[in-house]
Fold this protein.
Amino acid sequence: MRAEIVSVGTELLLGQIVDTNAAYLARGLSEVGISIYRRTTVGDNRERLVTALKEAFEESDVVLTIGGLGPTMDDITREGLAEALGDTLVQNEEIAEGLRRFFTKRNMPVLESNLRQALVPVHGRAIANPNGTAPGVLFEKDGKIGIALPGPPNEFIPMTDDHVLPYLRAKTGNIGTIRSLVLRVAGVGESAAEDRIKDLMLDSNPSVAPYAKVGEVHLRVTAKADTAEQAERMIAERAHLVRERLGTAVYGENDDPLEKAVVHLMTERGLTVSTAESCTGGLVAQRITDVAGSSAVFLGGVVAYSNAAKTDLVAVSADLIARVGAVSAEVAQALAEGARKRFGTDYGIGVTGVAGPGGGTEEKPVGLVYIAVSYPGGCEVDKSNFIGSRAIVRHRASQNVLNMLRLRILNG
Amino acid sequence: MRAEIVSVGTELLLGQIVDTNAAYLARGLSEVGISIYRRTTVGDNRERLVTALKEAFEESDVVLTIGGLGPTMDDITREGLAEALGDTLVQNEEIAEGLRRFFTKRNMPVLESNLRQALVPVHGRAIANPNGTAPGVLFEKDGKIGIALPGPPNEFIPMTDDHVLPYLRAKTGNIGTIRSLVLRVAGVGESAAEDRIKDLMLDSNPSVAPYAKVGEVHLRVTAKADTAEQAERMIAERAHLVRERLGTAVYGENDDPLEKAVVHLMTERGLTVSTAESCTGGLVAQRITDVAGSSAVFLGGVVAYSNAAKTDLVAVSADLIARVGAVSAEVAQALAEGARKRFGTDYGIGVTGVAGPGGGTEEKPVGLVYIAVSYPGGCEVDKSNFIGSRAIVRHRASQNVLNMLRLRILNG
């Protein structure tokens, strides 16, 4: 089975946004064992879209479109796909009713344009969209399959994972598959990680490829086999070897970020944590509470941006701040210990630093960050000099906080 | 002049890397005033590449390829482009000599395959590559222009900026440039925004196109004119009309997020704010402090995740929580007022809700969020039912917080 992806949108065509959806879908199709013939991007122009779709159907069995399913005049994909396949769209009353309810509930008028989203093909059906109003559309006509998905990634990704790929996997009868697994590594740089697995990187099946991310490294293990089970077994064996080499530096797999590993570890062990953040301004608390179920672990935090707040909220001595400065190992420790005491948690986090772009001095430059983890047996303080924008400095700091906390728990 | 971009590479096609180069080139072409007809991605397959190139030359005057210019067997673009245009490649002695020197200097053997990089078209020339061994190639034949550029961004970007765009600008006789401006809109949905500017959307130059984002809408105003000055003037006039229709719903321009608009507004007026967050877990504080210079505006915040923390940190009465529940308009108001008092700020923010995926009840479902803004003259409380994942619910809540705060300040 051969597929082609057509991305729709003038913003994409003109490069105003980068097309991460098409790459995501392409990876998914590969994993299902479908070869991709070509990818195309067209603007919000119905004639060009239909031309591209017709050309695509000449070469491929499945054509998947991304974008252009919204309620506005620019949104032309539903009609374009119907035209390319010679099919007709009809209003689905159930979907129309759902849309009417959606807008009425929000006290918004039900515009005629919104009801365009209830159109479904005569030879096909809608694909449910739990995160938005525009359902996807699936055509099955004359041996060809046409699938239209909406552009917003939070709608596109679950629809791809939960509907499109399982549907296509069933269609292909599952012959030959490519699987992959990402091992996520923190606290070790790309070169150092690569150094420890150099020999494994020489094999092509399974292959191991490193990708540097901000504050972490991802190792993608990929295997190709006749069956999913075989591929999974090859991956498991190879991943085991990688884990042996990298030890606790491997914190998790696939899409699970560091905060999830930390929350799960703490939940498992019945531990609690609290935060007192200065330069990260709530980023650490936000990342931890981004994990579902974090309320069992995270009791609370303070964002002590001003010096008065540091003293008032978590009892950092004003004297200490005057003596050593707010950006110091001592104040990081006082923040961590203050949080731990204030919230009565097992662990307390303190972060203070210069996020930039302003506020740096020769002695305390932009990127200087002190992190403290207060724990039952003491307090660990770390000093870093991060390089990058304000957002990068803050992200790297939060990454180090979470990794220090994780390793501290693992090391007892 | 009409152009098409063809990206070459199996890694790109399969989505193992995201194609940022094509987006970069598309933006550059737009600025030079060249319209882009289509973008295509093909794998390392010469036949498919040639087919895509021939199709592209049927529709467009200029076809630019990215990738596939290296020394390996996979690198097929140079030959593919020659075949599509019916041209011949010959070895350029100067480039060959440069390649020999390059490899000899590094004590590497000069392979025949490396010398393929010295091939240039009979009807055309090489494009110098200061950062790599593979020069670009430029064909000019039968009124068509074919340009091949290497894939590594550090080679591709300077070649695009220093050679390709100036060359094309000269070719077009500098007639015409495309400029655009994004107006960012919050508190109004895509359809409602569109409803108010429907007539403006019918014009094609300047054009106005809406794009739905999570919790906001972007309106892209694009103008094509002979000179940059003309285009900018057309955009300014059209943007003025859009702003008249949408009023304070337009919060900013281009890449500046809502938090930046809020921090700038508060800085201008010398106002301060503090936060007491439950379900957003520090996200509001994090977004505000993400803005450089926010320390003048944001004095501090608390993440009152547990009920005890709500009472202890910002004096929300335990009685009140017991009576109406933590997720209630009353507790949102108490959080906002508690924060405002605790930090002594002009404004105080309170957020409480059910972020999900667990924790919802029939009465208080996942997505229910109360937001309160306490201000010198009183307290405004808003109730929302957000749909989507935990991350989406939290993001939409933070978006509403920032917009409520902004409108409250603007409305005195």
